[in-house]
User: Fold this.
Amino acid sequence: MKPSTQRISWKGACALVVMAVFGACGAALAADNAAQTFTPKAVSEFEASVRPQGVPTDYVVTPNGFFSPSCVQRVEEGETLQADGSIQAANGLVRKAALCTQPHYRFDGSRVEPNGSFSMPPIQARQPTINGWVEDANYSSSVNIGKLVATWKVPSTPTNRSGQTDYFFPGLEQLPTVQSILQPVLGYGAFSGTVWTLSSWNCCVSGTTYYSGPINVSVGDTILGTTQCQAANSCSTWKVISKDVTKDTSTTLTTSPYGNLRWVFGGVMEVYGVSSCSQLPASSPLTYSSIAVYNTAFTKISSTPWGADYPVGSTSPQCRYNVSTTSSSVTLRY
Assistant:
């Protein structure tokens, strides 16, 4: 080859250098994003005026109340949470989650020991502050459920960003004795930082709550939550899939349900550290649409007699809470 054909102009050389540098940076950023970790929000991150009295400040907030960090376990993609609390990798290797020795505090303020016993009167929240479920639509099924699907959109960011946490999700629980809850969860301020995230949860085996690796989502994105057993009529293993349809990203928790699931929640709003209505998303109402409930044979259940529930009761702040439903939708107003 002639020397002249091997020569690169200074502009071309610079362009190649820039491309190489930015390519390396891009690869590094991609690797960094892939390795990004999310830490559940600590009580210490709430404003002092709304921290629940009696809960240690190093505890973290979850969709199931306040937990010691040692009792919150992340389950990675490809891993399966077993009935005994151990976590099995795709290659068959099993790791045992650290034993939970600390109590947790439910959203109603009760202290719960790792063995499930209630050992103390409810803690007192500073008023006016909401910590817990606000409103939801649910019903009790006469047959075991095998699949629940719901779609909703990421609402607007709250105008008042004061360290609060806002959760939205459908979910399934056992009846008559609740042992756990399977839930694909959209959360604002759920992990460190004031962003919207998606994660799938199962609580609370031996006092531990488990979650899948969170993903970031954006206001206006369409969310699809799917909670289903692995195969029709074989419901010892479930997948809780939280998907951002707009971005085509998802996070999945593969888990044991710990019992037959019959308590169906079409849509829930749960918040922590909320002392004013402006700390809720401004884009009320939020509608869960295309809700479909199936039995364990994956046959769609035609009758879903949703009932409105307002667990927040008369607690302030009151934000015009109202639940309305159709057979396939739940609309939450606030």
